[in-house]
Amino acid sequence: MIEERFDAIVVGAGMGGNAAALTMAERGLKVLQLERGEYSGSKNVQGAILYADMLEKLIPNFREDAPLERHLVEQRFWIVDECSHTGLHYRSDDFNEEKPNRYTIIRAQFDKWFSEKVREAGATVLCETTVTELLQDSHGRVVGVRTDRNGGEIHADVVVLAEGVNGLLGTRAGLRGRPAPDKVALAVKEMHFLSRETIDARFNLKGDEGLVIEAAGTISRGMTGMGFIYSNKECISLGIGCLVADFQRTGETPYGLLEGFKRHPSVAPLIEGSEVKEYSAHLIPEGGYKAIPQLCGEGWVVVGDAAQLNNAIHREGSNLAMTSGRIAAEAICLIKSRKDPMTAKNLSLYKKLLNDSFVIKDLKKYKDMPALLHTHSQNFFLTYPQLFSKAMQDYVRVDGTPKLEREKLMLNSFIKARSWSGLFSDALRIARAWR
Amino acid sequence: MPREPSQRVEDKLFYNRYLVDSGRAHIKVRPHTTPSSRLLSMLKACPARCYELNDKGHVEVTVDGCMECGTCRVICAESGDIEWSYPRGGFGVLFKFG
Predict the structure, then answer these.
(1) Is there a contact between A95 and A101 (Cβ–Cβ < 8 Å)?
(2) b or e along A353-391 (b: 16 or more beta carbons within 10 Å of the residue's beta carbon)?
(3) Cα distance from A45 to chain B (closest Cα, Å)?
């Protein structure tokens, strides 16, 4: 048993855990951070996009030494069918600014750097240590953790659960249930290496400019899902994710889906000749506002993916993790400075501060979106993409059919597939959920 | 001739680094005579194809290539079909990029 007692123990060294540990250590708390990987980052998987604003709040001068890949100047949204994509592309030279807003990053490398900042701030970071359970006293109060190291009981005033999407400890301690199959997506990803010049040429980039492609449609075979392509300096992160419940229902394989996406005629030329260096898989919280569990209790708080804080509509997760980690830490520091105990009542300050932030406000805005997309996946991810693609082709193809006739055929194809009432209610449902 | 990309998971897992904790599987399948539909769905849903049907018709798990995503936990742990935990500290998949 480690006799030393800590002000706070942080479980996990992802974005949320690092933000929390850094914030508390900087303010003089005695912090122990536990990470099961061989180094901070070795178990962490993300696309990945980094949002500068949330990191600036923690490390204002991060651009000086953080391992950033490329800053984003272009966003492409694609609706795809088997052989086409209909794209909405946004590119702006405004994004070539002194302090860019979004970067691609490689998580294992970025997190290692982030962890170094946590150590520099004075926290004790212990890797290769899996926390197996929360220590609770006879009143159910969390008083520390048990690890898989010999005699690994460690005590602290408060435990910050930043254990990631699986949130095992919270479930074991009865603080929350397991995520349900319709509340999480499984994403698989490959890292495709190409020369820097090849990436620049294929994506129309120069210098450290980067780009994101997000694609939805027949690639997810009727399931709720999305494919993504992110340009890094010398490699491309390419992946696809779908709801776990959809995989369970359809019997589609994640790697089959990934291969299908890679073979798509709009994608294949982008990765041609690449060398794949890693294949990874990860769960993403998709339940939104309604899936957020209890955020704090006697002697504990939960942040990031473990609290299911993920904005699936805008594909934002790591920034919500960073922000919730920072806010939880600020609440803890405030309670500590008042010399108050880490009770559920006092720690509810975290919940209050989080409610006032963009994190909960954004999730609340889209609270009805998951249910809509998850229950009508066939329409939104198969039928409509096929209809749109066909309509686009009819629009651009010139073959002597009078335009009026063509437009009528186009409209009829939509009505035939979804009916007037179906089209109307789909539009209404989207508008309502988006509000 | 463009090479047809391989769909074999084994080839994909070959890119990854692992430190296998021999004899200490972090996922265990509950002994069964007939596998549940949940367990059977893992034959397809596991991204590392850790789940296989043996010749007795039982679902088995081999965790060596596991990427610790938790998909099987989400599908099979609630019903008790499997027991799921993380590998011991330092063991399991070691992502270079993540």
Answers:
(1) yes
(2) bbeeebbbebbebbebbbebbbebbebbbbbbbbbbbbb
(3) 4
Query: What one-letter code names the amino acid at A185?
Result: A
Closest residue, chain A, to B69 (C-alpha): A282
Domain assignment present for B89: yes
pLDDT classification of B5: cutoffs 50, 70, 90: very low
CB-CB contact of A178 with A185 (8 Å): no
Q: Count residue pairs from A and B with Cβ separation < 8 A.
A: 139
Which H helix or E strand runs over B76? helix B71-76
The ipTM value here is 0.94
Residue A6, sorted as left (phi over 0), alpha (psi -120 to 50) or beta, turns out to be beta
- With an 8 Å Cβ cutoff, are A130 and B89 in contact? yes
Total domains in the fold of chain B: 1
Identify the sign of the CA torsion A386, A387, A388, A390: positive
Question: Residue B83 is part of which domain span?
Answer: 25-94
User: How far does Cα A431 stand from its chain's mean position?
Assistant: 24
Looking at CA atoms only, how far is residue A106 from chain B in angstroms?
6
C-alpha span between A413 and A419 (Å, rounded): 9
Instruction: Set out the domains of chain A in order of their start, with CATH numbers.
Output: 5-67+106-176+290-366 (3.50.50.60), 184-285 (3.30.9.90), 370-434 (no CATH)
- pLDDT tens string A254-299: 999 999 999 999 999 999 999 999 999 999 999 999 999 999 999 9
Q: Which chain B positions have a beta carbon within 8 Å of A166's beta carbon?
A: 70, 73
Contacting residues of B for A44, CB less than 8 Å apart = 95, 98
pLDDT band (50, 70, 90) for residue B15? very high
Which two tokens mark A91? 């590119």
Within-domain flag for B67: yes
Any idea what the CATH number is for the domain that residue B73 is in?
Answer: 3.30.70.20
- Tens of pLDDT, residue by residue over A303-325, are 999 999 999 989 899 999 999 99
Whether residue B14 lies inside any domain: the answer is no
Q: What is the mean pLDDT of chain A?
A: 95
Distance from CA of B77 to the nearest CA of A (A): 9
| A169 contacts on B by Cβ (under 8 Å) | none
